[in-house]
Design a protein that fits this description.
Chain lengths: ~700, ~375, ~375
């Protein structure tokens, strides 16, 4: 479908002063206000912002799929010169899927579970080009091969649930590419995937974009990803675009306080919890119906000037130069953008104390039925294999790994929700490997607590915040009367920097970060000495992450708590941990101090993991290592070394040792342990994955 | 799959055994047996005479033992009276069987195909059951034939555009019919369509549109010999109405849920037309839940059958059950239980298997 | 005296129901005025469907409550010459102080259909909600551990509940609600088991919450045990020393059967919801601070399952109403002259061809109550899904 009236040198997508509102029974909720941006042919435009900033709403508006409650209340969206906002249903239908295609966050949910992959793919050209069924299937087969999926014929005949998450996302991409659209909208396409899988998808998207000359609108909360993929970038805050420009300009010469604050709150290489702590953005994201007068970012901005910033709506203003760099800040010309962040208080490094926790040769196996009908033979899942490590008082030990690596099982065994299959766990001076939580004494229980991952799940929705903390105090035997516990609860709220009034609130009235703070307060109710934090910030927005991380470390310093920080995010791990343990399929593949793990020699998996993590810094030069395939299922691990199916160094080991034998744990000196067959010479010759260009 | 089916069959047998034993115990309560003795013997029997009568007619001994007899796992009772005439469970079984010269067996129970003798119908229970199940089979068939397509269509139409006017009207109808148990809908249907003094019949008769006094007959007894639209419409609708509402609501709920799924949005944004979105993408996923509901409706349908058959005097399974229960006909009641429980459990099995086939996510998991 | 026209009949019925209208107006006025402070109950008044349902339900609740004021004749007395008489007919040989018409006609024994339908509401509304409450306590107390602990306990309880669910309800009633069963020890045994559940439930609930504070715990649990066991002795064994709690064997039999039929359904729902909710992090948080299983089940899981349970509660009262009607329809467990809707329909249906009103009036009454409950459940479901 070619439109003769469209001039390819003009933008392919032009959004002007777009305003979108959702209408509820009570009120109109503006979701996007006065949003403008344009995407040129072949260009990749990034839309960045925290959850609720309206970036997905913009994408859906381009697709004209805002649901029953959403409506475009102003502005225009022009695609190849035609205004989409006034287009009729039938015209839109012809455009959707053929000229504009979309890729979504949840690959599993976006594929029809009851239709074969082939049918779902072939449908697109059959609708739009009236292609015959056989031709459409042939095309589908070719595109499936294009997205680098093995065995396309088998895949076309499968149902979505038979594929892994990464494969499903490739299918969704293939589906979007079936009719070679001019514009591709990607809504957080990799958020639901593991980092090493994400890297592969990002590479694919970039390569295909170049191959087909497709323009892209790439929506993400991850600045690092945007740097990898996009040419231009639009930062959104609370329904407005606050800064637009070329990726390099925005990254290196940001001209909006929000963008600057955002960059200062994410852990980039060089940030360090003691010498260069992160700077969290104060305050909270405003709710759509509680936006402030004037600049939306005003109340949280350190450059805020009373009477000026909150006087009237701030327009976008074009900066000098020809590179279309715009900002929505009145003071952009007055601010000294290169000044270092104020009051970055350095703290003394904490010296670890005595050993409080010691794992020795711990194993945890599960047996599960192999089929859905409960029949058949039982299989053994080896969730944790020979786990040995120790953690000291006041130390932060990070446990890193992707899904299925056994980190959650490890936490369960430690907490006493499961008992170990074999091996020992020394907690303080007690062996706890075979005592479930019911048989542990209250002291042990209250000193070992956990902070959970999902803020929306961590608090009981039907109990007030105060009540939940008081309950923990009651259980831990703190305080001798209700009044005393009440007072202690308020102190705990102070500790996690929440207003005391929150005690009366129900969890649904709190934001994600606030809930996470309550979760931390609850964990420290009994004066915990060892805290397991299971991805405590991964579900939070970046600006909130820094604040919650800071809080955790503050409390840790005060109480000399041992923090076991479970995470898949290497940036944050590098920032806050003293020692790191990398896990893959139940095995600890590498362990050492943060410096040891983040610099060569690496375990091949650590190396790939480091390379896969997107870093939002233009100065960083990364060695690109993309792992083939997906993480094998823990139900059916490969023989020999668990990582051998994806290892790029495998050929360096003689005699196919990797296929046969699990490598032994080797000590590379100073407690740096690695589980790999690679000869010393090869290990010694490894290059660092991340380098700073300036250095 | 085979293992799964075998396990389910095992559970079904266990359930049927347990339930039949419970029913056996409940129908053989001492007081019921006393009544039976007085009804079969004489009303003025003393307690001792009752006890003797029970012993002589095979009702002595423990409940478990007699359950074994009924099942065919324990030898049937025999009793020789003073006159030297020997009677017994298995002797009666032979008497009523079609092959009079068969050997007198020791074991004669369900397992040997002997269901006992009905005291109400004066016939072997197997014959009573065969006749009544045949009649009910037709009723069920027409109920399903009316109910399933109607309810699915209504549910899908209502659910595909949630909140639309079609949805609201259809949902309203569905909620009214689910609030109407069979004995209410039957009564209302008869009053409106089959009463000589009320409803539409008097009016129609006055206008000369119908020849008889009422539009539909108020009984379905004639359907025992010959099923026609006229004599079957009311009993079928009486049962189907409740189910239509219920299944339509399930289908609607399932359909609205599917329509909000991400993959429906994917399909829509692929440029698939609304019609095709519904037909190709939503329907199959939306029908998984109603299918299991339809199958699990059988226990409730049996209720409807009992009420409808009583109301319309149609001598099928439900009518037989009521007669047997009302007159403490132990053997028939037991027979009915076994059949009913079996039907229910088999439909559950079908529902499980069907679910597996409809839902590809489970099939190969 | 003339026969009333339909318009007059309706006007007079509306007039008789005056106390009900008054009560409805007050209820709605107060509820709407304070709806923002009333939680889920207040949100009923945001949904038209919910309001209609609530109005229908409350209509029958108030009717049952004010039944003595509303009825025009003694529902049991027979007036000669009024057999199967049409609605609006004047009462023959009327004495002073007696209402002059049979507003909705007479039944086959010449009793006033209107008054019997009004009194029938009382029969239903006394048993149905309480039976449903007890069924919920049984279902919850068994469903929570089955879903939470799983394993053999779950297999056993699920098998038992499927056993009951596989039984066609009517068959079960024919077996359970019979004179011979009533004479045996079965209803009392059942009652002894089933009525124990509310006491067990309340005790576990309070103990789990207050066990850290012994005095408070002993006080609350003590009150529950004293009151509970007192009521228990009266209801299950008819042995209340003070004679406050009692239940006739007939009602007990019906009550126990209805609870027995309903509990497995509740059990299944609760079990399913627990299996879902137990994977939440706040449950894990409870576990990691060493809470007992009953605290986690009753205070962490159960409150978060309340939405669907409240909806099911409404639907189940409707279902119980239908079941009670079924029992009446087959003449099980009710006194022959009882005004309950089911048996009235049963007697009326035999004369449907000539005089439909004795059967149609209770039929519509029963339908409107069940409809009200279904609509209310729908409204609640809709409102609880918002947020």
């Amino acid at each position: 479908m070619s439109d003769t009236t469209w001039d390819p040198s003009k933008p392919i997508l032009e959004i002007e002063n777009l305003s979108i509102s959702f209408f509820t029974r009570l009120r109109e909720i503006p979701a996007v206000m006065d949003f403008s941006c344009s995407v040129m042919a072949g260009e990749a435009m990034g839309l960045v912002g925290e959850s609720g900033c309206g970036k997905s709403t913009v994408a859906l508006a381009v697709m004209r799929d805002l649901g029953k409650t959403g409506r475009i209340v102003g502005g225009s969206i022009r695609f190849k010169g035609r205004d989409l906002t006034t287009m009729g249903e039938e015209e839109l239908r012809k455009l959707r899927g053929s000229e504009i295609a979309m890729i979504y966050q949840e690959p599993m949910a976006s594929l029809n579970p009851a239709m074969k992959i082939g049918a779902q793919l072939a449908e697109v050209p059959m609708i739009h080009q009236g292609m015959a069924k056989a031709d459409a299937w042939a095309l589908a087969r070719q595109i499936v091969a294009d997205v680098r999926l093995p065995d396309p014929d088998r895949i076309l005949q499968s149902y979505p649930h038979q594929l892994s998450g990464g494969q499903q996302q490739r299918i969704v991409i293939a589906m979007a590419l079936m009719s070679k659209p001019a514009l591709l909208i990607l809504d957080e396409p990799t958020t639901a995937l593991d980092v090493t899988v994400e890297a592969g998808i990002v590479d694919l998207v970039k390569a295909l974009g170049e191959k087909y000359g497709t323009s892209m609108l790439f929506i993400s909360h991850n600045l690092g990803l945007v740097l990898d993929v996009c040419d231009r970038l639009c930062v959104m805050y609370s329904g407005e675009a606050v800064e637009t420009g070329n990726v390099e300009d925005v990254f290196d010469e940001m001209r909006h306080p929000y963008t600057q604050a955002l960059f200062r709150s994410i852990p980039l290489p060089g940030a360090d919890k003691n010498t260069h702590p992160l700077v969290a953005i104060p305050g909270n994201f405003p709710l759509p119906h509680e936006r402030p007068q004037g600049c939306n970012f005003g109340p949280r901005c350190s450059y805020f000037v009373e009477g000026r910033c909150n006087a009237a709506d701030v327009p976008m203003s074009l900066l000098g130069g020809t590179r279309r760099h715009e900002t929505r800040c009145l003071r952009h010309a007055e601010i000294d953008w290169d000044a270092p962040p104020a009051a970055s208080k350095a703290v003394a490094k904490m010296e670890p104390g005595k050993v409080v926790l010691k794992f020795d040769d711990l194993k945890k196996y599960y047996s599960v039925g192999s089929s859905a009908f409960g029949g058949g033979s039982k299989k053994v899942v080896k969730a944790n294999e020979t786990l040995s490590f120790e953690a000291r008082e006041g130390e932060t030990l990070a446990i890193v790994g992707e899904s299925g690596c056994g980190k959650s099982t490890f936490a369960k065994v430690l907490m006493g929700l499961e008992t170990a299959t074999s091996g020992t766990i020394m907690l303080f001076d007690e062996n706890v490997q075979s005592s479930p939580i019911q048989s542990r004494n209250m002291d042990t229980v209250s000193q070992l607590q956990m902070v959970f991952q999902n803020p929306f799940d961590t608090l009981n929705p039907s109990m007030s915040v105060g009540r939940q903390i008081i309950r923990a105090l009651e259980i831990f035997g703190q305080g001798s009367s209700d009044a005393e516990r009440e007072a202690r609860m308020l102190e705990l709220l102070d500790l996690v920097k929440l207003p005391r009034a929150f005690a009366e609130r129900m969890p649904r009235q709190l934001s994600g970060g606030q809930k996470q703070r309550v979760g931390i307060a609850r964990a420290f109710a009994g004066g915990a000495k060892v805290v397991v934090a299971d991805e405590p910030v991964s579900a939070l927005d970046v600006s909130v992450q820094a604040a919650v991380t800071d809080l955790l470390m503050d409390i840790q310093r005060k109480n000399r708590t041992t923090l076991l920080f479970i995470s898949h995010d290497l940036s944050i791990v590098r920032y806050l941990s003293d020692r790191v343990m990398v896990m893959y399929l139940g095995h600890v593949v590498e362990m050492g101090t943060t410096d040891q793990v983040f610099s060569p020699p690496y375990h091949p998996y650590t190396e790939a993991l480091l390379s896969a993590v997107p870093i939002a810094d233009t100065r960083v030069i990364k060695q690109r290592i993309v792992l083939e395939g997906d993480i094998p299922s823990a139900m059916n691990p490969p023989p020999g070394c668990p990582f051998q199916t994806r290892c790029r160094w495998k050929s360096q080991v003689a005699g196919g040792l990797c296929d046969r034998e699990v490598p032994p744990v080797r000590d590379l000196g100073d407690g740096h342990q690695i589980k790999c067959h690679l000869p010393d010479a090869v290990l010694a010759g490894m290059e660092p994955v991340i380098k700073m260009a300036a250095e | 799959m085979v293992v799964f089916v075998l396990r389910r069959v095992g559970i079904i047998l266990l359930t049927a055994l347990t339930l039949s034993f419970i029913v056996f115990a409940l129908t053989n309560l001492p007081s019921s047996l006393g009544k039976l003795a007085k009804a079969e013997g004489s009303v003025r029997m003393s307690d001792e005479e009752v006890q003797r009568w029970l012993d002589e007619n095979g009702f002595g001994g423990s409940t478990v033992w007699r359950y074994g007899e009924w099942l065919g796992l324990a030898p049937g009772w025999t009793h020789t009276d003073e006159a030297g005439v020997t009677r017994g469970r298995c002797i009666e079984a032979v008497k009523t069987s079609q092959t009079p010269d068969a050997e007198v067996a020791t074991y004669c129970g369900i397992l040997q195909g002997y269901w006992g003798f009905s005291t109400v119908f004066k016939q072997p229970v197997s014959e009573v059951m065969a006749r009544s199940l045949g009649a009910t089979g037709w009723l069920m068939f027409w109920v399903m034939a009316v109910m399933v397509p109607t309810s699915l269509v209504l549910g899908v139409l209502a659910g595909m555009r949630e909140g639309s006017r079609t949805d609201r009207v259809l949902s309203g109808v569905a909620i009214v019919t689910t609030a109407t148990p069979e004995y209410v809908s039957g009564v209302v249907l008869i009053a409106v369509l089959a009463s000589a003094t009320a409803g539409v019949s008097p009016v129609l008769a006055e206008w000369g549109w119908i020849s008889g006094k009422t539009l539909f007959p108020g009984t379905a007894t004639s359907a025992m010999d010959d099923i026609t639209f006229m004599n079957f419409f009311l009993p079928v609708m009486t049962i189907a109405l409740y189910g239509i509402g219920y299944i339509a609501r399930m289908t609607r709920a399932s359909m609205t849920e599917v329509m909000t799924q991400q993959y429906i949005r994917t399909a829509r944004l692929k440029g698939v037309s609304f019609r095709q979105v519904v037909m190709k993408h939503a329907l199959r996923n939306a029908l998984i839940a109603p299918f299991t509901v339809i199958m699990l409706q059988f226990p409730w349908l049996l209720n409807g059958v009992v009420i409808s058959e009583t109301l319309f005097n149609y001598k099928g399974f439900g009518w037989t059950l009521v007669q047997a229960a009302g007159n403490n006909d132990i053997n028939t009641l037991l027979g009915c239980t076994v059949v009913a429980v079996f039907v229910v459990l088999v439909t559950q099995l079908i529902s499980d298997i069907g679910y597996v086939f409809l839902n590809p996510r489970i099939r190969l998991a | 005296m003339d026969t009333l026209t339909w318009g007059q009949i309706i006007t007079r019925i509306l007039w008789q129901l005056l106390p009900v209208w008054g009560a409805l107006v007050v209820t709605f006025g107060l509820s709407i005025a304070f709806k923002r402070r009333l939680g889920l109950y207040g949100r009923i008044f945001d949904s038209t469907v919910g309001m209609i349902g609530f109005a229908l339900v409350m209509f029958w609740v108030f009717t049952a409550f004010f039944a003595d004021l509303i009825i025009t004749h003694d529902p049991y007395s027979q007036v000669s010459g009024m057999k199967n008489i049409l609605p609006g007919s004047p009462v023959k040989n009327v004495k002073d102080g007696v209402y002059q018409w049979y507003l909705l006609g007479g039944d086959h024994l010449a009793r006033d259909v209107f008054s019997r339908a009004i009194m029938g509401a009382r029969e239903v509304l006394i048993i149905a909600p309480f039976a449903t409450v007890v069924a919920f306590m049984v279902g919850i107390t068994l469903g929570l551990p089955a879903g939470y602990l799983g394993g053999k306990l779950d297999v056993g309880l699920s098998f038992g509940s499927n056993l009951v669910l596989a039984f066609p309800v009517i068959l079960l009633f024919y077996l359970l609600v019979t004179p011979s069963v009533q004479e045996s020890a079965i209803p009392t045994t059942f009652a002894a088991i089933l009525f124990l559940f509310p006491i067990v439930f309340m005790t576990l609930l309070l103990n789990a919450r207050y066990f850290t504070n012994k005095t408070q715990r002993n006080l609350y649990v003590g009150i529950v045990l004293v009151v509970g066991l007192w009521a228990y002795s009266g209801l299950a064994f008819n042995a209340d020393p003070l004679g406050v709690w009692s239940m006739s064997p007939n009602i007990l039999n019906v009550f126990v059967s209805v609870v027995f039929v309903n509990s497995p359904g509740v059990f299944r729902i609760v079990r399913g919801m627990v299996m879902d909710i137990k994977t939440r992090d706040y449950v894990a948080a409870g576990q990691t601070r060493g809470e007992g299983i009953w605290y986690i089940m009753l205070w962490e899981i159960l409150p978060n399952a309340r939405g669907p349970l409240i909806v099911d509660f409404c639907l189940r009262i409707g279902y119980t109403t239908i079941l009670l009607g079924t029992l009446g329809f087959f003449g099980l467990g009710v006194a022959p002259d009882s005004p309950d809707w089911g048996s009235t329909i049963n007697y009326g249906r035999r004369l449907l061809a000539i005089a439909p009103h004795p059967a149609v009036v209770p039929a519509l009454a029963l339908m409107s109550l069940v409809l009200g409950l279904n609509l209310l459940a729908d409204g609640l479901r809709e409102e609880s899904l918002k947020d």
